[in-house]
Amino acid sequence: MASQRQLFNLRDAIWNGSVPLDIRLSPQECRVYDKADPFLIQYPRLSYLPFLLARLHAFFHPSLIDPSLAAHGGWFSYEDVPLKWHYPLGLLYDLFSGAVQAQISESDRNDRFPARRPSTLPWRLTLHFTDWPGDQLVHPDAEGKVLHDAFINSVKEADFLRNGTAKGIMSLSKDDSTRLWNAVQEHERSIFDPILQRLLYAQGAPLRHIPLKVYLPSSPSASEPLTGHLRVIQSLITPSLQDTKEPQTLGTALHALLPTLFPSRRTPILAKPVLHGAVVPLSSQVEELLREAAYLDGWLHVGLVMMG
Predict the structure, then answer these.
(1) Is the pLDDT of residue 185 over 90?
(2) How far apart are CA 265 and CA 182, in angstroms?
(3) How far is CA 307 from CA 24, 111, 150, 268, in A?
(4) For residue 19, which phi and psi values (nearest 5 degrees)?
(5) Alpha carbons 41 and 122: distance in angstroms, whole number
(6) What's the rounded Cα separation, in Å, for the pair 259 and 144?
């Protein structure tokens, strides 16, 4: 069991975690093709890329072939794969580039020259304002209501899984709901944390299920020919094992969800779970992970890195 100091340091590291971004305007939309200056920023892992669109539009406006294009019509891609705008940045990075970083981190323990290994940082993304990939992404609106609703719906779903009811989020006053969304947009911890604690410990009710989503990279198929495809796997995960009442660990949960990938509940053999850029031990208790390492929407978003 981690000490209170360790838990405080963990929460602090997660909140302050960031990814350096190198954002380039799509050459097909740029007056000078690929010669426009990049937009460089250190951006919070817990935040969302659409919050950057207004700044990016202003930055690249002089370079746009069509300057009348609206900021809210922007979308991002990585190596020609459209990025889902309602996923937190840290999750996106872990899914598309974090596998390389996780493997580097594991290898560096026994590597005398880790600096020689390739790095995916800063993470280079391409910004587009045309050719919206409607078959892969939902189009947001100018007021940001679509993004707001996507986030709140995710919070409601997590609340329902934890408590068997969404009364926690539904009972927030209009002012608190507004403060919650503003805290997410502005990455303001002093406002977000008190509201989060009220949701996580609603009326002292026992925890029913763990809001856990597991992201598994999968190969294109005839029915899903798109590159960068991900399977999102979730099920009802209880905080303790039904038969023994022992605490549910990440290993037991992943074994139940994906027994072929996690034949062992204790040792990763074919894949490793990654959360907030770190490989998580299978012995970690999922309830403790939820309390200390959930994303802003109340979910544990765990990416899988294939081994070998």
Answers:
(1) yes
(2) 40
(3) 31, 18, 33, 9
(4) -130, 125
(5) 9
(6) 40
Phi, psi of 268 (to 5 degrees): -70, 130
Q: Where are the alpha helices (DSSP H) in the chain?
A: 4-16, 53-60, 89-96, 98-108, 145-163, 167-170, 174-186, 189-200, 250-257, 286-293
Amino acid at 76: F
Calculate the alpha carbon distances from 189 to 22, 91, 264, 267, 300 in Å. 25, 19, 38, 35, 18
Q: With H, G, I as helix, E, B as strand and everything else as coil, classify residue 162.
A: helix
248-305 pLDDT, tens digit per residue, is 999 999 999 999 999 999 999 999 999 999 999 999 999 999 999 999 999 999 999 9
Residue type, 34: D
User: Per-residue confidence at 123, pLDDT binned at 50, 70, 90?
Assistant: very high
Helix (H, G, I), strand (E, B) or coil at 272: strand
| Separation in Å, CA 87 to CA 84, 131, 133, 180, 185 | 6, 21, 16, 18, 14
**Residue 28 gets which letter from DSSP?**
G
pLDDT digits (tens, 9 = 90+) for 63-115: 999 999 999 999 999 999 999 999 999 999 999 987 555 555 555 444 544 44
